[in-house]
Write a structure and sequence with these properties.
The protein is mainly α. It is built from 5 helices and no strands.
Length: 132
């Protein structure tokens, strides 16, 4: 952050939390967000997907259970987590950190993981990147 603010580097890709105050103060100019749609707290900043359809590079967090975990246990945990993520104090706390909780179904999360893996592995292979 110090390098972009001092002019040592011309551009950065950074997370919203440390960048946002500098954008709002006018010290930095946001060119775009990497989420598929504009970010709710910075609605004037376009999503990169508006120029490059399909662009979707999002930092996400999730919970995983060991293979073979009984489905009723997964469903119960998922239901509890989704309820917690709807609580106003939890939403407020996450918002302060520049995050937005979406919750959802385990199947959708699994699809996100598989899709992200396939996309990044394709890039690794196309660019001949060696995985160590």
């Amino acid at each position: 952050m110090a390098d972009i603010l001092s002019g040592q580097v011309p551009i950065i890709v950074g997370s919203l939390l440390p960048v946002s105050p500098h954008v709002k103060s006018g010290k930095l100019r946001a060119l775009g967000v990497t989420t598929p749609k504009r970010w709710y707290s910075m609605p004037d900043v376009p999503a990169i997907a508006e120029t490059y359809p399909g662009f979707d590079v999002v930092l996400w967090f999730g919970l995983m259970a060991p293979k073979g975990t009984p489905q009723p246990a997964i469903d119960r945990l998922n239901g509890a987590i989704n309820q917690i993520l709807k609580m106003e104090d939890v939403k407020t706390s996450l918002d302060r950190e520049g995050m937005q909780a979406t919750g959802g179904a385990p199947e959708a999360f699994g699809k996100r993981i598989r899709d992200d893996y396939a996309r990044w592995m394709k890039l690794v292979k196309e660019r001949n990147i060696v995985i160590k």
